[in-house]
User: Which sequence fits this backbone?
């Protein structure tokens, strides 16, 4: 019954929790992997007992999985078994008493402002429609702090209601209005003038789908630029900027957006809203920036911190 129950679980996560496609894909992979491992031990995923799951977690540790990966897989199992219990497909929850490996929450990788300037300088050196698109992508990513999926799938109509803002649909289908800088708006305007170059031919079946997106794709089934293609484009720009491509990703630029805002005086709540975090606790990973700023403020401004002449 595992395959059917997993499908029902994913349907529930999509319908009731508004889980994004990437989240659903991750749950599917984790549950199918757990099912395969348990089946190899002669146990069905839906019938597994707590000792079976403990043995599964021990096997993951022996395989050298990172604590973060093991914790994510345990989270998927916990949600799955709570679903089975709620739907009456099990009389107990074998994962309820399990705890994942303890892990320190890492600070996000971040670029310095000088690194960001170097990236933009490299993008500015690109010619033609490809260069215009690269600059628009970079400006929107860094000016708005968008997730990469939000960026590449931006509808062309996202700018329709407020020209100085972009309407972003984030996780769970939640919409937010993200204000943009003049530079970002100018880059998007310049790109729109050559956007048609990136559309499929008029006779192609994918033309009507691609026309909906700000960053269309001439190939593929999604109609818009893929996350993978943009990530590669960003690494190419990093290489031209003299930066380590392995250290540059769309998510790193999103972190840079948040970190640089806080470093220049933004408050945590405002950054939470701009990032589209449902809970401020997610944004609190950036509190180290606030702590550094407050330390400098006290050191520079407090009368008692001033050195005697």
Assistant:
């Amino acid at each position: 019954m595992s395959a059917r129950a997993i499908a029902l679980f994913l349907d529930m996560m999509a319908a009731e929790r508004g889980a994004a496609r990437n989240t659903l894909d991750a749950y599917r992979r984790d549950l199918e992997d757990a099912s395969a491992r348990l089946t190899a031990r002669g146990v069905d995923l839906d019938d597994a007992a707590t000792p079976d799951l403990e043995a599964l977690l021990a096997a993951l540790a022996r395989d050298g999985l990172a604590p973060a990966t093991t914790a994510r897989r345990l989270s998927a199992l916990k949600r799955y078994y709570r679903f089975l219990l709620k739907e009456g497909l099990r009389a107990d929850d074998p994962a309820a008493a399990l705890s994942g490996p303890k892990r320190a929450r890492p600070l996000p990788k971040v670029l310095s402002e000088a690194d960001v300037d170097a990236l933009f300088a490299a993008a500015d050196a690109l010619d033609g429609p490809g260069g215009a698109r690269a600059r628009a992508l970079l400006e929107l990513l860094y000016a708005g702090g968008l997730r990469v999926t939000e960026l590449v799938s931006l509808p062309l109509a996202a700018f329709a209601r407020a020209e100085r803002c972009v309407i972003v649909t984030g996780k769970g289908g939640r919409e937010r209005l993200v204000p943009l800088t003049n530079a970002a708006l100018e880059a998007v305007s310049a790109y729109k003038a050559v956007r048609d170059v990136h559309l499929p031919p008029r006779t192609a079946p994918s033309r009507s789908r691609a026309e909906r997106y700000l960053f269309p794709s001439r190939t593929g089934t999604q109609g818009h630029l893929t996350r993978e293609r943009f990530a590669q484009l960003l690494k190419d720009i990093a290489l031209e900027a003299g930066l380590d491509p392995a250290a540059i990703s769309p998510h790193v630029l999103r972190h840079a957006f948040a970190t640089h805002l806080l470093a220049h005086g933004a408050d945590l709540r405002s950054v939470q809203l701009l990032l589209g975090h449902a809970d401020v606790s997610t944004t609190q990973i950036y509190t180290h920036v606030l702590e550094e700023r407050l330390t400098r403020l006290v050191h520079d401004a407090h009368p008692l911190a001033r050195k005697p002449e």
